[in-house]
Amino acid sequence: MGIIDETRFVERLQFFNGQRLFASDLQGLEAFNREMRWLHNQSLHQPGVGNGFAISGEKEDREVTVRPGYAIDSLGREIVLTETLVLPIPPVAGKDGAPIFFDLTVAYPDDSNLEEAETREGVCLPRGVVRLREAPIFCWVELAGENLIPKKTKLRMELQQGLRIRLARIEVLNCQLKSSVSTTQRQSARPAMAPYIASGAEKAERIEDAPNLDRLHNNNPNFRALMLSGTVNTSSAGFLTTPDYSVSPIGPRAFSLEQPDNPKAVPQVLILDQVYIEEAKPESFNFTALLVVSSLQGSDLKDQDIVIVKTQIMNRWQISWMGVER
Description:
This protein has helices at residues 23-44, 153-161, 303-316, and strands at 48-52, 55-56, 63-66, 69-72, 78-81, 85-88, 100-107, 115-120, 128-133, 137-144, 149-150, 164-173, 176-177, 196-202, 206-209, 223-233, 244-250, 267-278, 284-295, 318-325. The protein is mainly β and 326 residues long.
């Protein structure tokens, strides 16, 4: 079942010259646009604060300041505050010398909570309301237990269902703030864009001798140094900026010169810690991995042995990469 399942039908209102309009016609037009907007919000956004709703309050204060903001609940309804408010904190002393925790929440106002902003005289009819002022409903929710969950079941369910949006958390002791207001618990209507992590794997492009590394092994004929390199295409990840890349060659570390799948392999490939990344871009990067081939039986490695190992590495290894865009 999805959000759209609750929409039975969509009717687009239309008017014609000479039509007699009733209040229900114009209210139906407004309701259609409102419900389509709510459906959009509900489908593409999560409940939470979209903008503003900054909360401030310092230690020993007896009130908090709420600045204008915009939020969305789980039904897609917009919760809008257009002016700065000062809200008194709950007047509680604490319990056994310990502070009591409260969450400041905001909710969409029901029609019964709307203030009449303007009324007009009707034509041969009594005065009626033509404007209702929407104002968010703020509520201090008392928390209890080690996990700090709302004490009242109804409020807990409304928070879980996204009908009530958490803005801030306070500690109250002796009818004043024990510490500054915390907003780390609030939820954003816009999911965090960073860090964005993507990964993939593909074949290396080249493998070649690295004679300049032979000095690491005192030119021991039982060891040969190789260099694995290539360009990795990361465009499928859709990075917007250059991420932090990490690379790891993945594949079997031991090979047989006669039978590639023989577990009693003769040469063994070691990956040194040096894996270099150069020319990193959002869509690609170049890498170089330094390898060492050693003989498990202590015999000298011949050039034809290294050719076999190179071929098997190119056929059986993949370059695993991960990018973290912050």
